[in-house]
Amino acid sequence: MSSQTILDKEETLSSLPPEWPVDLTSTIASRVSTDDQTIVAIDDDPTGTQTVYDLPVLTEWSEETIEAEFHRGTPAFYIMTNSRSLTPDEAASINETIAHRLIQVAKKYKRRLSVISRSDSTLRGHYPLEIDVLAKALSQQDGESNIDGQLIIPFFLEGGRLTIHDVHYVAEGKKLIPAAETPFAKDAAFGFTNSNLLDYVEEKTQGRFKRDQVQSITIEDIRKGGPDIVRKKLATLSKLQPCVVNAVTLRDMQVLALGLLDAEAKDQKRILVRSAASFVQARIGLPKKPLLNADTINSLNSSNGGLVVVGSYVPKTTTQLESLLTLDDLEKIKIEVSDLVDEQKRDENIDNILTCIEGAIASGKNAVVYTTRKLVTGATPAESLAIGNAVSQGLVSIVSNLKVQPRFLIAKGGITSSDVATKGLGIRRAMILGQAAPGIPVWSIGEEGKFPGMSYVVFPGNVGGEDELKNLVLRLSE
Questions:
Q1: Is the pLDDT of residue 350 over 70?
Q2: Helices (H), 205-314
Q3: Phi, psi dihedrals of residue 269, rounded to the nearest 5°
Q4: Could you tell me if 159 and 461 are in contact, meaning their C-beta atoms sit under 8 angstroms apart?
Q5: Is 207 exposed, middle or buried (0-12, 13-18, 19+ CB in 10 A)?
Q6: What is the pLDDT of residues 200-239, one digit of tens each?
Q7: Is the pTM of this model over 0.85?
């Protein structure tokens, strides 16, 4: 186990070299628009859309659905798998299926593929499993050479997830906390002990890649050497060699993205990416967009109340929920986790909850339904995932049986927001409108879904300040 020091955020950031002087957004966007490459982010939960806009997100991946995006000429899109809530075998199967279908469709449309395995900025998820599966599947494309490298990029600006000197940090107030010292590292299914990403890779690959075999692109490389140095380092990768990326700003990501484009185009390198949300924005050259206003999110102009569904159990969510519950004009419905796990109690409890929610919403009052805050885990990671899924299924049943359309719907937590989207609202394809607050994406529900055209707010469990959820509800209620 590696132990790192808690750092002063301002002092640490001020000690770094100045950013690369050129904004590369338009350069990257121009390359993307004229390239024969389709960018696909395979996302292990819905929160990965938290930095982009005007892009589609698919929640199912039949060959017909994937081909429809290629037929539309969509240069970049998301496929949301929710694999973080699944067992390793299930996650592997899904990624393999998607990869093979992407290969077939890309070949038909004569497009190259750029695949991003989007995952958690706090290092949770099926790593290295998903990268290994994708690498094997994509390496078989037309007998091409194996994947040369894998980039590990957990940087996420809006969430304060920064990588400095190969150590990944979570910003909390004025401090930078090493990721392994946060509650995220104690995740029942995806816990880890190393904040240094070189050690993290060795830990998670169980020694298949030793720390001295892991390449690193440093802040100095990015800010002093620019895209050329990034390209030169990527050109040395071979045999799926891991390369960790240090970054603290979106400009750092842009330099990396352009270096990657050059390594692929000029050096014929084939590189997979395992990243958090910020890299996707940089990779497609997407300019920053102002946060969505309440009128845009409440586009249907309903007089009904809104609904907030909270399933996430992480401490940040609990703090935000406690702040929300201080509001007076709010229907507050607490559910015991045991009542959702126990199949004999579940249906009766859900019926009672629906009656309360529908009455509140129809009267113009907002409602929040939330699970008790004590984390219930199983004896194994698989059992813990099963309990989490049972809770999510109960919340899904509430949404799917809702007969009164809310003014807006906010789902709090990755697994919760995924299951509410696909199973509760029946979303198959949604458009990402933008962000309601930093790191909090808003989808517009497609015609095939329940409540078409309604805005669906995907609120990650580990994003935002103490009053972020309360303030968002107040803003959307004006």
A1: yes
A2: 219-220, 226-234, 250-266, 277-283, 294-297
A3: -80, 145
A4: no
A5: exposed
A6: 999 999 999 999 999 999 999 999 999 999 999 999 999 9
A7: yes
